[in-house]
Write a structure and sequence with these properties.
With about 475 residues, this protein is an alpha/beta fold. The chain contains 18 helices and 19 strands.
Length: about 475
């Protein structure tokens, strides 16, 4: 493990240069660190002195006492190089530059970034940023980002986000999808450290099992390929790559000074290295959660149980086009389902239970079937019925069974859920399924997620690697 990068996540002490009493990063981050128990290891710098949130404001970095090995810099771009010199004189060798106004604006900003980089290298300082919001480590509650408390629940998924604010927003939404993280880093302009440095770091991080990444463009395409090839066999990497179109490429240049490149090249890169590409934010989150919560499938045979025949057909089409098989059910599964099913119910795969009470029984039969490698549960209920039954006090577990409890009895096979309809119904199904069953709001991304797991499992088969 790279001990240098590890300092960003486990500093002995941190100094915030640019603490301020008015709203902004310099105001909120000290509160975050204080609330998470870092007050005794956090030092604030502002030339006016005084106090902020009950913490002393030091007039200069040179006045800061105690062991400090990480500087978080939030000062105007023209002042950053001077702060880096002061940090170097203090013996600090790691810095997060959250200030904007560098290469992303071109012209003078690019010159300021080059000057800051030269200063950092002269002082032996490794840098995350500029134009970012830094890092999170949920294990020790260290954060240079203002995030909600739910985002600090420890998990096994690492996040690499090129964008600062998007990275924060992503962290804000993950808990709603029951996805918890181990560590996160936002890269910004990648003046020094880039996505490859952190892919290499997470390869050896014992607290990380899955990596999700938002990328606008590669800092070094050849090295990105090498880093992904080294990481993907042991830990799946899920990627959302923007800048597909000419207009999108132009937008990335003005956002993080990134050259997004030709999309076909990235598509080939991800295919060659085993990285899994998501098309949307929603798909990135739910695919990541599928990898984070599910065992890898032993094959590509998909069982589908649905309360909507049409959605079953859509899922079958997507499955076949994605390299999966929707096989005929084994005789044992057909008998288990027929035992309690009405005469009108056609017992085949997909199993369309319609309005019958057979959903849970059919789901359990598919999960128990050795001829089925993965299962998709499609839950649909008209909102007018949902309102009626919930108004009478129903918890909803009698509609489709307790998916979370069923999952606990069949832990060795991938199971994902697709809930379609009113958001109140979808939210209720998410709560019933719990954190162990990924929930999608459309069948196609659910199937693509399972297909991605199968393709990944094929790639690493024979390596002895098994992701939980």
């Amino acid at each position: 493990m790279d001990a240098g990068i590890n300092t960003f996540f486990e500093p002995r002490g941190v100094v915030l240069v640019g603490a301020r009493s008015s709203p902004g990063f310099g105001y909120g981050i000290p509160l975050v660190l204080k609330s998470h128990g870092w007050e005794g290891r956090t030092f604030l710098v502002n030339p006016r002195g005084g106090e902020l949130h009950g913490m002393r404001l030091h007039a200069s970095l040179a006045d800061v006492p105690g062991p400090v090995d990480l500087a978080v810099i939030i000062v105007p771009a023209p002042s950053v190089a001077a702060v880096l010199d002061q940090a170097g004189a203090k013996g600090i060798r790691h810095a997060v530059i959250e200030s904007a106004g560098f290469a992303e604006i071109g012209g003078d900003g690019r010159a300021l970034q080059e000057a800051a980089l030269e200063t950092a290298r002269r002082n032996g300082i490794r840098v995350v940023g500029p134009n970012c919001v830094g890092v999170i480590n949920t294990a020790n509650k260290f954060s240079t980002i203002e995030v909600i408390e739910e985002a600090m629940v420890p998990g096994r998924t690492a996040v690499i986000a090129q964008s600062g604010v998007f990275g924060t927003v992503l962290l804000d939404m993950l808990h709603e999808h029951d996805l918890t993280i181990s560590k996160a880093v936002t890269l910004g302009n990648r003046m020094d450290l880039d996505e490859c440095d952190f892919l290499d770091y997470f390869r050896d991080d014992p607290g990380t099992s899955v990596v999700m990444m938002y990328l606008e463009g590669a800092a070094d395409g050849r090295r990105l390929r090498e880093s992904l090839l080294a990481l993907a066999p042991s830990k799946p990497v899920l990627v959302l790559k923007s800048g597909r179109t000419a207009s999108g490429k132009a937008a990335t240049a003005s956002h993080t000074a990134s050259l997004s490149g030709e999309d076909e090249i990235y598509q080939a890169l991800f295919r060659q290295t085993g990285a899994i590409r998501a098309d949307t934010i929603e798909e990135l989150v739910e695919m990541t959660r599928t990898f984070a919560t599910s065992p890898l499938p032993k094959g590509n045979r998909l069982g589908i149980v649905t309360s909507s025949g049409s959605l079953g057909v859509m899922s079958t089409d997507m499955a076949v086009s994605s390299g999966l098989i929707v096989p005929e059910l084994s005789e044992s599964s057909r008998e288990a389902i027929r035992a309690g099913s009405p005469a009108w119910m056609n017992v085949r795969n997909p199993v369309d239970v319609g309005p019958s009470p057979m959903f849970a029984a059919a789901l359990e039969a598919l999960l128990a079937d050795d001829d089925i490698d993965m299962v998709l549960a499609i839950t649909v209920l008209p909102y007018v019925i949902f309102k009626t039954v919930t108004g009478k006090g129903s918890s909803g577990r009698n509609w489709f069974g307790d998916l979370g409890e069923i999952r606990s009895r069949f832990p060795d096979k991938p199971l994902v859920q697709c809930a379609v309809g009113h958001h109140e119904f979808v939210d209720r199904m998410r709560r019933i399924a719990g954190p162990a069953v990924p929930l999608f709001i459309a069948p196609e991304p659910a199937v693509r997620s399972l297909a991605a797991m199968y393709q990944y499992s094929k790639r690493i088969k024979g390596t002895g690697t098994f992701i939980h």
